[in-house]
Design brief:
This protein has 21 helices and no strands. The two termini are about 40 Å apart.
Length: about 425
Amino acid sequence: MFAGTLCWLLYLIYGSSYVTSEHALAFSEFVGGRPVSKDLVREFIANSVFMRYVADACELVLYLLATMTIVEVLSNNGCFDFLSEWLRTRNCRRLLWLTAGITFVLSANLDNLTTACLMLTAIHALVANRRQRMIFGAMVVVAANCGGAFTVIGDMTSLSLWVKGVITPTHYSGMLFLPCLTATVVTGLLMMRHLPVRLELAQTAPRYRGDDTVLNRAQRLLMLLVGIGGLWFIPTFHRMTELPPFVGALCVLSLLWIIHELCNRKLLKSEQMASRKRLPLALQYAHIQTILFILGVTMAIGAVQETGALREMAEWCSIHVPNIYVIGIFMGLLSMWLDGIVVMLANVSTFALPAQAGLDGYFQSFATDGSFWPLLSYCTAWGGSLLTIGSMAGYALLRMENVSLTWYLRFVTGKVLVGGLCGLIVFAVMTECL
């Protein structure tokens, strides 16, 4: 947020030359024959340039706010209690695959941070051995990032591509499902070698169900189907109405909230509803941090884009690096140290510009549903899994299990790299066949 604010302050002070070069026609119409002054330039920046990026950022933030609230309502009503039931086994390898499979599926429907927090909490309450929990947690991070990458509602990186209009949901998911599944399976096979045959289950209290003391299984299943099914309906809603995705998410949230109040009507006028413990504060803080982080990053990259530097970078890449796989792998490795959201937003702002200019040849890969966009999303997903600091799910593992960067680099990074390269080969074969 500090970077985003500082970048726009600097642009407001020193942006006269950028305004005349990047917005020459619009600025001349705005001036309308008046003498150009610093106050006039600042007024144009504030009203015509800055507000456009505010609108883009608000679309992402409102979508996140709606979907996170949907997940919170489902969690508080015990709709995810089945996780602890399905994961109840003493076989380490079976638990690893159950964990990876459930995480992969859930993260495709929910955001990967929420899925990672839910699964890490379940694993922490189930497994007694800390080292084994670290291995399971690392697998959760990989499965959450890969699972969230192959749908437009599963991760902020894919959502940003969809909001910018460079992908369509069906084509995008079709291109990435097999590569993401391959990366997850190969990583799981390599991680499995570090686990014993059996494990000791932790002695835990009965599962917590939040506000759902009056809800039966059928009611919880109804709310789960409405929440998850509504999220899947958002792309169709967007295609039918042409309204931004956050409008569909708000509609789903309102419908789920009505069902929530009907199911909990016996508690609405009592003190029992207010006294129930809400979602863990750590998860709430993580959500707020995610929203503020994305807001700051979006604003910072917008300011950089207005200087024309990203356009120059795209032109340089078209001359010196005319290969989308080289760019994709480099961006994946960059995601190890920066968050994948930062890398994705920077690339959207960089490479979407030449595609809109209608250039042929190399830049055809950057058009709508071009092969570069799913490749970039895949590379940032597995690249962000190479280190715990590369994704929000990795940060969740870092906080909950206190995993050191050295341990993760020694026991996990190499396996994720091999799995990611296998998935990349699958993507290349699919691209050539299609």
